[in-house]
Amino acid sequence: xxxxFGRRVVVLRPTRHTSARISxxxxxxxxxxxxxxxAVGVLALGTGEFTLSPAQVVEALAxxxxxxxxxxxxxxxxxxxxxxxxLGAALGLSGxxxxxxxxxxxxxxxVIGFNTGAYTGVLIVTVLMGNGYYxxxxxxxxxxxxxxxxxxxxAFSRGVQGFRLIIVGxxxxxxxxxxxxWFITTMDLQAAYAAALWGQGSLNGLGWAxxxxxxxAVGALCLALLxxxxxxxxxxxxxxxxxxxxVRVQPVRLAYLVIGVALTAVATATxxxxxxxxxAAPQLAQRLTRTPGIALLPSAAMGAFLLMLSDWLAQRxxxxxxxxxxxxxxxxxxxxxxxxxxxxxxx
Length: 347
Known about the structure:
It is a single chain. Helix content is 73%, strand content 2%. The protein has 15 helices and 2 strands. The chain has helices at 24-46, 54-61, 67-102, 109-112, 114-128, 133-155, 162-186, 189-198, 208-228, 231-235, 239-244, 249-271, 277-289, 296-316, 325-345; strands at 9-12, 20-23. 45% of the residues are buried.
């Protein structure tokens, strides 16, 4: 199923029996954002106590250059850059899915409360079992999915409307935030400090052990997203229009919700709750592409660029002290909200 909105498109035919139609401007924006994210990644690989030029970074990535340069670039810094790109793309995709389903720019997983639920899962696991990486990741995943199930059930009334989902999500998020504070007060001092630090959202200390599971999980979810293809754009037109075009609204909506929550949960399980990327990336991408609806690929590219840039700023602004990347994204998100309010006031 496809809908022609009158835009210029590129038709790809990888095989005789399959084809894909891609709008030209979103494709160009996606390529530009991806190149910008990679450029910031090269900058991040070359800056720090051991400084390298972009040419030396490229040489190290190609397996050339000095042994010290390859050690610093490939073993120490590259995992963090890859995680910033992968998790940023996951957050951008998740935000795009929820904003399209709710048809509301505030329909973001961190506003609806899935990040808070994932944090609750981590705190429960920390209290009951300890704080190993896979324990925390499992707790975040289960917490995010359980919160999504609760929000979905409470918002369900002859289907799920976007505005009701947001309101219920904000209420559940507020209750979970209170529970999180209570959990922290019950922990011993060291566990409470570790939990509070994780709650800021950070890529510090992550390495190749986290890159592989995150890449596999996000890749699998992207494949699942491809199976549903243009149905998200149809749902964004409204339930009645989607049903008239032959889409089974509730099952397809539920499948998108599960994929969106899983993308957020993977990012949260790996790096902690990183706010505002999922909220801002789809809106910024839409303003660049000027599409009538939320586009997935530009949102993913914008998410990767925002998280990559935020993490580089988190490393360099107060160097040698490194900030959690979540602190930078919250600051950038605050500026985004101010700009959004000023823009709305001028209308």
